[in-house]
Amino acid sequence: MRKPRDFDAELKALEDKARELKTRKVQQLGELVIATGADQLSTDELAGALVAITETNDTSKREAWAKRGAMFFESRSRRTAPASQRNPRSSPAQQGSSQSPASGTGSQ
What is the pLDDT of residues 11-46, one digit of tens each? Predict the structure, then answer.
């Protein structure tokens, strides 16, 4: 006879994982803001820039921003990571994590 599933425990585990992912996403966004120097902007300036980016439908601008973001991450990883960890977006450790900032909706 099969053991009955504990749906409550499974649901709690999923909720905990979702909470952890959301916390990690917020932390990574904060780290990105600091790493790019955007923490020097006022909240209104930063919010306005993000709104303008999300409203932009010009694909050439979005592609240029994506390339610039990729270059930022590549140059940053060369300066701070050992040679074996230079491309953090392709590392196996991040396969199960949320999207990297360079592949989010603001960079497409």
Answer: 999 999 999 999 999 999 999 999 999 999 999 999
Residue with tokens 């360079």: 102
4 vs 58, which has greater pLDDT? 58
3-state secondary structure (DSSP) of residue 83: helix
Cα separation, 63 vs 57, whole angstroms: 11
Count Cβ atoms within 10 A of the Cβ of residue 101 and give its class: 0-12 exposed, 13-18 middle, 19 or more buried.
buried
DSSP 17-53: HHHHHHHHHHHHHHHHHHHHTGGGS-HHHHHHHHHHH
Give which of 108, 87, 89 is closest to 98, Cα–Cα: 89
